[in-house]
Amino acid sequence: MSGLLEIVLVDAQGLPKSDLIGKMDPYVTIQYKNQNVRSSVAKGQGTNPVWDDKLTLWVEYPEPDGQYNVVFKIFDRDTFSRDDLIGETTISVKDLVELGAKKGKTNVEPRKYSVFESKKNKPVQGRAGDIHVGLTFTPKDMLNRGHVKD
């Protein structure tokens, strides 16, 4: 069975400052298996950006490898240099997908998840603020029947 994972990316709070001059322009990349989606850029919003973006990914159930981790990476967009990786978090959607596969559309209201600093090619470092995310899983057969309601 497959289904649609809808991610509501609300905001982030308390991100570490990465620019010496001016405000940060944060955005988020979201990865699940071989799928990648990207949020809008919160231009000039600094360490407490608001996105209010809805992004979607396809999820299989059961997954052959048993892994249901969605990786969120927060970057600061830079004009004249490489974008800076601010931090990341991983959210397991296994319970959400299992419940949705059995009972139909299932959601987790937006809540805060801790973000951790990360440096390229190094393990995760200290805490780097919070990200506010909501999740909804809708089985494909419900999408096909038109039973999806907000």
Walk me through this protein's architecture.
Keywords: Calcium, Metal-binding. The structure is a single chain. With 150 residues, the chain is mainly beta. The chain has a single domain, classed as C2 domain (Immunoglobulin-like), CATH 2.60.40. It is built from two helices and eight strands. A four-stranded antiparallel beta sheet has the order 4-1-8-7. The protein has a four-stranded antiparallel beta sheet with strand order 3-2-5-6, with no helix packed on it. A hairpin with a 7-residue loop joins β5 and β6. The longest helix has 10 residues.
- Assigned CATH architecture: Sandwich
Q: How big a fraction of the residues is strand?
A: over 45%
The CATH topology is what?
Immunoglobulin-like
Low-confidence stretches: none
Strand order of the largest sheet: 4-1-8-7
Name the descriptors:
150 residues, mainly beta, Immunoglobulin-like, four-stranded antiparallel β-sheet, 2 helices, 50% strand
Sequence-ordered SSE layout with sheet pairings:
Layout lengths: L1 E12 L12 E7 L2 E4 L11 E11 L8 E8 L7 E9 L1 H10 L2 E11 L10 E13 H6 L5
Antiparallel strand pairs: 1-4, 1-8, 2-3, 2-5, 5-6, 7-8
Summarize, please.
This protein has 2 helices and 8 strands, in the order ββββββαββα.
